[in-house]
Fold ComEC/Rec2-related protein domain-containing protein.
Amino acid sequence: MTHSVISMEGINKITNSKSKTFVLFCFCFLIGIACASVTDLQIDFVYLYVSLFISLSTLIIFWKNNLVRYIVFSLVFFILGVGRFFISIPINNDNNVIYYAGDKKTIIGYVSAEPDVRMDGVRYIVHSQKFVDKTGVEHQISGDIYLKSFLYPRYEYGDKLEIKCSLELPEPIEDFRYDKYLARYGVFTLCQNPNITKIGSGDGSKILGGIYTLKSVVAEKINKLWHEPQASFMAGLLYGYRGGLGELNELFSRTGVTHIVAISGYNITIIATILISICLAFYVPRKKAFWVISFGIIIFVIFAGLSASVVRAGIMGIIVLLSRQTGRVSQVGSVMLITAVVMAVQNPYILMWDAGFQLSFISTLGLVYLTVKIRKPFEKVPEIFGIKESLLSTLSAIIATLPLILFQFGRLSIVAPIVNILILWIIPWIMMLGFFAVLFSFVFQPLALVISWVAWIGMCFIIFVVRWFASLQFSAVDVRFPLWGMIVGYVAIFLWINKKHTKVVISK
């Protein structure tokens, strides 16, 4: 028996050691991507190959030296991270549209992403297929271009377009790295002053085309059931649309509730947590509630268009649910890190230039680790309508993301905690009513109108609360953290999470 216990302890130590080593290498890979993405250095791949060769040769020679082996392996993963970032930079040759920046061209391509509809126009990402020279000869090219057009005529995903425009390289705008912002979508070329002619349709993914068509039909139903701004509000709740909110966007920002109309890990996990509380209130077993809500998140992600941000939000939400289902909070950090590595491999620009990724990642960690930390002072808060879980989740996410928000956006919402507490409990009910209102609008319009009226009351309540708190002079203050301030903030949060309470025993 003793031998078996010792062996199990030894196995656990070996497993933990390997896990920590793997985490270290993942960090080195991410640091490599981060360093390459912020320095803007142009490194020839020959130097990366030479560095890898020297590192691997050193590894073979000093394999038995544990310290050298760890250092060299860390260096190898760092180099791989640097290499992954440089692979994502398009090759500037005549086969890529970036080569023709500075010229006026006639580009033939198709709308390759869901159009971004805003108050002042529509933004499109178009995948280039050909360009037509002055003699009318077509040349094959590749690469995506970004352009802005009028609200009408409007083009849909998969529409084939002929575009005459001036091609330009995106440049930073003051402190905003506009070039990096577009690069995270795979766009490295702007199409200015476009003259657009639709010449076909049906290109691109048939699956995504079907999803976007369904969303367009749902959008039409929503516009018939509600007036603005409630129509755009409901669209934001159901699938993350923010084009018609107008001044509400600013009010949501001042009161710290922008997340309710943005598909983020913060949004999904809070709603999922509240729904779990509701399931438990109706005596739905925890295991069944977990699978039901996870399935619902997957369906929601598919309906919302499978964009990178939506998929990321779904993954983060399911990770939080899984951690609470299994109770293995200590392992969530490793799972989150692996998730970050996989996402960075798929798109290395999100690590440093996608604030949505950063907020989702950090808020998810906050929901996992800080919720447990701050739970004790709120033991007497009632469980009704999920108020307690809503409060804990809100405060955890706010604390976790505060240093990042002050660094990225420079705005602190003083009223965010109380506004979130006042409105978050009703969000799942409004979403549910909105879903059934849209569903019944296909089969029985009168019932859909009745349900939509109830949802309208709930949205009016939220808008009233947001407007009232946003009108307060102290609702938000402009406070910007420097980089070192953000780092200090997260070091303090990390130390707080890992602080262990020790009991002092005084012997007589």
User: Anything to note?
Assistant: The radius of gyration is 26 Å.
